[in-house]
From TrEMBL:
Gene Ontology terms, MF aspect: medium-chain fatty acid-CoA ligase activity
InterPro entries: AMP-bd_C_sf (IPR045851), AMP-binding_CS (IPR020845), AMP-dep_synth/lig_dom (IPR000873), ANL_N_sf (IPR042099)
UniProt-listed Gene3D superfamilies: 3.30.300.30, N-terminal domain of ligase-like (3.40.50.12780)
Similarity comment: family membership: Belongs to the ATP-dependent AMP-binding enzyme family.
Keyword Ribosomal protein: no
Residue ranges of domain AMP-dependent synthetase/ligase in the record: 49-198
Name used for this protein in its record: Unannotated protein
Species per Swiss-Prot/TrEMBL record: freshwater metagenome
Keywords, sorted A to Z: Ligase
Keyword Nuclease: no
Amino acid sequence: MIMEEKKLRPVMPIQAEWSTPQLQENVAVALEGSGAALSTVKLAIDEIDEEVALVVNSSGSTGDAKLIAISRSALIASTNACHKFLGAVPGDTWSLLLPTTHIAGLNVVIRATALGTKVIDNRGANNYEDADFISIVPTQLHKAIHADPKLLEHLRAAEAVLVGGGPLDINLRKLAESKHVKVVTTYGMTEMSGGCVFNSKPLEGVKFELDNNGLIKVNGPMMAMGYIQADGTINSFAKNGWFSSTDLGEINSGLLKVIGRSDEVIISGGEKISLPFVESEIKKIYPDTPLIVFSIPDQLWGERLCIGAIVELSLEDIGSKLGPIFKPKSLFLFNEIPTTTIGKPDRQSAKNMALKLGNSN
């Protein structure tokens, strides 16, 4: 049996000096197949499987970032499903507020390209140019509500504001909607070309289920090809057509509720505790205070529940409202709250900062 040799295409890193129109042009030809595939990082290879359009590093909120090869067909399926859900039509516009080093920001560029419009780059803007659709992370929504009235007006002007990349506190969502921001929650991962579940519902072609441990599994036409190795080899992560996430979930009446990452659930004093849940509950007590909840190893507790903030907080007050299980054992004062490049809470960095500080406040 003669094995057919795979056809290759050039691959090149996205250049930091490219203007946004240059990036959009290169993305367009990568999707079309007439130009080089693009990578968010410099690779050791200069050619790749011709089906690959993008090589994207995952956001790596736990320090385990991987390089993911995404095909042209997967990106097109993701874009079409997103636009069908939103009711987007050619000529509609997208506002770019996210870094293009990860899939969420690149998706904004791809979606604008698919609609035949120039992506509106509002990153770092003092005055925002309105667009039909916007994609942001929860920290940006919080900023708009509490500290940036111009950004809030920008969000209010949009037909839909996609909020993903991490759990969205229900009270923040209600507050945003009371201010006429049309929020659409998104859940997904780079392995699925970004968001594939909008407002708890699967996009067209997407299926989800839970495994025996309550972890979310997904499949659909937007699934990426696999993880890419240094030599260009692509290893599929699909098992029987499904991608198994590290996210715990619940399914009720066909709607998916994301509880949180399994690696963000600690066992402290024999109790299972979700760090994102505790964080969201504390933010209800201190809505205007930047903070992060994390854990550090502890001989007594196994894992010690901790909180990092930029100002003093009352652990006793938190304990009286949340109960002893969810009361942080230690408070650490940070100069700033660590986040990943896409704005997710960086609990690993918070842990490292706390261990370096030593004694808590």
